[in-house]
Amino acid sequence: MWVPLLLLLLAVGAPADAKKKEEAVIEEVGAKQLEQLVEQHDYVAVFWYGRRCKIDCDAVLTELETIDDDTDKFGVQFVKINDKKLAKKYGISEFPALTYFRNKEPIKYEGDLMNEDEVLEFLTSLDAMELPDQIEEVNAKILDKIVEEQPYVAVFFSPVTLPGAILQTSRAAVSASARSRSWRTLTTRPTSWASRFVKINDEALADEYSLDSLPTLVYYRNRIPIVYDGDLTKEEDVLDWLVQNKSTGDDDDEIEDVSETMLEAMIDSVDYLAVLFYQEDDEDSEAALAELENIDDECDDRGIHFVKTDDEDAARSYGIEEFPTLVYFEKEIPNIYDGDLTDEDEVLAWLIHQLESDEIEDVTDEMLDKLIKEESHVAVLFYDENDKKSQRVLVELENIDDDCDKNRIVFVKIDNDDEAKEYGIEETPTLVYFEDGVPSVYDGDLMKEEEVLAWLLDQVENEMIEDVTDEMLDKLIDGTGHLACSVLRPAVGSHAYTAAASQLIPSDDKGQKKSQKVLVELENIDDECDEHGIVFVKIDNTEEAIEYGIEQLPTLVYFENEIPSIYDGDLMNEEEVLAWLVRQVSSDEIEDVTDEMLDKIIERNPYVAAVFYDKDDKQDLNTLVELENIDDECDKHGIVFVKIDNDEEAKEYGIEELPTLVYFENQIPSIYEGDLNDENQVLEWLVEQKESSTIEEVTDEILDDLVKDHGYVAVYYKNIDDETDEHGIIFVTTEDTGFAKSSAGIKKFPALVRSQTEEAVLKWLTDDKTLELPDQIEEVNGRMLKKFIDDDSDDVVAFFYKKKDKNADAILAELEHIDDDTERAGITFVKCSDSLAAKQYQVTRPAIVFFHNDKPVVYKGDLKDEDKLLEWLMEMKDTVADDVIEEVKGAQLQKMVDELDYLVVFFYDEKCKNCDAILAELENIDDEADDAGIHFVKTMDTAFAKSLGIHTFPTVVYFEDSVPIVYNGELTDENSVLDWAIKVKDDDSIEEIDRPTLLSLIDSEDYLAVYFYVDNSESSSVLKYMEMIDDEAAEYGIRFVKINDKLMAKKYGFRDPPGLAYFRKGKHIKFDGDLYDEEEILDWLTNPDNMELTDAIEKINRKMFARLVERTDHYFAVFFYTEKNCKQCEKVLQELEHIDDEAGAAGIDFVKIDDMELARQYGVFALPAVVLFRGDEADPVIYAGDLKNEERILEWLLVEKNPGSEVIEELSGQELQKQIDISDAIAVYFYNDSCADCAIILQELENID
């Protein structure tokens, strides 16, 4: 909130003369400047004028300057020039005139220059801005217009252009550059898949669409964005994807599936959107989808876009826990359907009703939180659906929903008691208005909709101090950097004035009138507070006042980062109040607090330094001046620094001398015993207390309080000679330094040595038996709770509560009855009053939270019904028992890796968004893995993963005999994971050979892969990766063997095995890539370039053929033949061998394949045959000439590869007739082989081809 309000201050505070300077003025340029502009910018508008104008040039210029800002938004540079000579160059002979340079090409405007709207349309129309033969660059404004007007738009979001030097060295930049070249190629193709292809460099817009990395391609189909997640360098794949998505869009009978990123983008850009949140393989979801597909067309007809998503993160962000669920978004405002999703007619009627009616949308608590965070003006009706009064109020307020929309007020309703309690709302219906997250409660009659509307509009238009409840105040204190709160005196008998409070703050009419007068004054400075980033609210709640130690009302309290400070001046002097508030924002003063405020600060903040002082003592004040110098440094270290003038509070901490500094860490105090006037020493001590693990120094009074307030306190007594004797511990001294050095390793003296190690002490202190408190639920702080959750083999249930809360005490009494039952069920039950822990787990107290593997689940039922709670806990225990993949970490994981023969580990971390979904899939194969003898576990031990070289999560690793193998496939396909693990376990198929066999195979095999290894751990590990691909290599005709022979390894270049060699007809090459990457090895082995045989036409199989076809930059000729019943095949092959080298030199590889079925697929029905495959062209060309004439075949190949070469194409028969039929003009040279001059004439004719 601070930053946007500061920005508003800068905008509003600009002086009047600055505004005049910023008025739209078309810039004057000279000839050179204009040439530079045209060269550097795609769109330049030029207003030509002179001394003699056909019509008044100044009048035209005045009109055009009204659209200068608009053209800027569309990226059009608008300039004016008085240069008759240059004007003549561009065909301008009369003035005034307007020329539009679009990609350096000038277009003259022929319309009325006095009609600025027509001129603007001319300059910013999509047709005018379209650049031929290139991807045009647009800004956000142009993109909005294109997407709005065109049905199919492809948008290339590119990153910021890097400087040339960086561009050459940055791999990422090179990749982006390569992709841009692919796009230029792609956009020269027919664009039946898109009305427009543009690019944009706008990181803010990319962030808005949640595009995690750039460059990215987004395809807008009827304004719906779809993000491409494939490889942008593969233009054919991209084109296929674009065409497929357009075709899918034309198929109106299927509801489109979208990801979380796409959904967020659609909610932002589509006004009327219906979203079905569903689950894959869920019967209810499938039934609902089957019905809803029938109304997709009707929704489209009415402008409602219908999509579906099974993204659990997206569902969770909107508070959706049951599937399927339908949510309708109207201009980003969600509304949940609560009827029968299998009744398509009812659903359609509801959607149409939402579209046409003025109904207030119903939202979940998560939806509400998003709206309050993202929208400036939100009105929320907290209601009870089963309450008649709520229903009547809703009927009235529906009448003003449209008016709220027109005035930019989002109006929603919510039926959620817990959410209402968070805002201190105890009665429904209640209306709360939020402006930039700050709430204000309506206290009028909700049945009078006109008064409600007037109040809401007044909140929007007029700056006034918002009225809040105590719970709202707590939320604002938590989330607002600078907050001013005026605590007023409530009227006697109001809900904010209680009997208990009246004893401390007596009520009187005079005090009530003073509060109202003060409020009138403070309203005058509300705007100024906004400008300084200070949120100003008011509260009339005496109990809240007492909590902060406020005894007189009205009082002003300023909160900075949750730290309160009380104003002690004259509240009727608004200028003095404003000056004090602004000073609080900018100054480094240590805040003065009451004892109640100090208690709250200590409870809410983990690190607090408090100076106890006497404001009437000059020495104390001088000390404070020194300490003010380190207030900022304390803030940087996360230490809250406050001061307090309260003798009684000091005595409670055993403080007898002032000033004294006390440091609180997680509510545990420690007293500073050094010189308070040495601020550097004080700062050093405070930072040391925070950063290091020191035992806090306390007084006996502090110790008494600690023992009372905490379930566990460990005390180290310094002067303990007598006490140690009582406990049988002998305490002795010695001056024998030699003994100390040799026996205890002591180098500095004096020193204390104990026979008990600190590890043993810590183990004793944190042992479950030591921590256990008989017959009661243990009290823990945040750290202890984390320890229970992390280390306990049991599941953990925590009761989060506030101390001195009578309701919490009553609940606790009930919970004690089921403590033993949960313990017997293996559930650890604890209670926690630590507010920071409650905030960490996002819990509203009081609450019961069940933890399994650090994942919290909040109990939604009645906390006082112990039987229902126990039943729920048992259900939760049973549910997680089905979570069959065991969670392990650290030493336990290492032990399993060391001891188990076959182990699969799923590594993941807290940041992983899709890990829960992947784990849910992997749970399905845990039993099958067990059946195969493979143990399956999961871990968040990222340190262990990193020790294996794993830095991305999630990742699956298979361990066999402690050797790790990483899975590189799709983790969401659990069957693939299982098949892979079983294959790795069972596959030991690489043939072991000896030296004579190796030499024999090198001579006899066309393709031979040899793994040279020795007996060490690295060789064993690499072998596992080799064994994963030997079967696939065999499919390419590659024989895979292994040999343990150091001499042969050395002969073929491997001095330090392991290593991999590839023999092709006896000639070998070495693999120099990553031996742990089986996919890289397989790609290398099957790369056509590596498989090429230099002295013969390579024989390939179907698998190898497929690899060749995949290459779009490659020309190759295929000789289709058969070894059965083909007399000509051998003779033709001999002819072709003669031209293999010449074809290769021309960039055409020759291969042969014995596969009649494959030949038929390409139109070859008689063998032998020669077929040419031409890179990126889909259809190959079949040679129709004489197969025994090698020169003609070579000539044909060269012509087909390069039709522009100096060779006249040879045609005959039907091919010649076809060419004559389709050609407008054709020259044919007829000749025969017996003609002596024909060859000479042909050679001459080649020169004019």
Automatic annotation (TrEMBL):
CDD domains: PDI_a_family, PDI_b_family
Residues in the signal sequence: 1-18
Span of domain Thioredoxin: 10-128, 874-1003
InterPro entries per the UniProt record, alphabetical: Thioredoxin-like_sf (IPR036249), Thioredoxin_domain (IPR013766)
Protein name: Thioredoxin domain-containing protein
Keywords, alphabetical: Signal
Highest taxon above the source species: Eukaryota
Entry keyword Signal: yes
